């Protein structure tokens, strides 16, 4: 069994619509996540590859940066 790691990402979200877009793309991946809109952070708990998570977040059209494991 693989262990889930919580990954921290910076996503340039400015409004509820932005966080809604992030929620939509992440729901398709079947991962646990938490969005911190004021600080523009997204925490994803997953055993998926970081590149997969980055690519998924970039589908929102926002600037995304991988900060690292939490």
UniProtKB/TrEMBL annotation:
The keyword Ribonucleoprotein does not apply. Residues 4-65 form the HMA domain. GO terms for molecular function: copper chaperone activity; metal ion binding. InterPro entries: Copper_transport_ATOX1-like (IPR051881), HMA_dom (IPR006121), HMA_dom_sf (IPR036163). Keywords: Chaperone, Copper, Copper transport, Ion transport, Metal-binding, Transport. GO terms for biological process: copper ion transport. The keyword Ribonucleoprotein does not apply. GO terms for cellular component: cytosol. Binds and deliver cytosolic copper to the copper ATPase proteins. May be important in cellular antioxidant defense. Homodimer. Interacts with ATP7B. Interacts with ATP7A. Interacts (via dimer form) with SLC31A1 (via C-terminal domain); this interaction improves ATOX1 stability and controls intracellular Cu(I) levels. Belongs to the ATX1 family. This is Copper transport protein ATOX1. It comes from Cyprinus carpio carpio.
């Amino acid at each position: 069994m693989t262990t889930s790691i919580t990954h921290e990402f910076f996503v340039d979200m400015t409004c509820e619509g932005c966080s809604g877009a992030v929620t939509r793309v992440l729901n398709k991946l079947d991962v646990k996540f938490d969005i911190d809109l004021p600080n523009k952070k997204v925490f994803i708990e997953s055993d998926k590859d970081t590149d997969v998570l980055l690519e998924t977040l970039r589908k929102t059209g926002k600037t995304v940066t991988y900060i690292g494991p939490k």
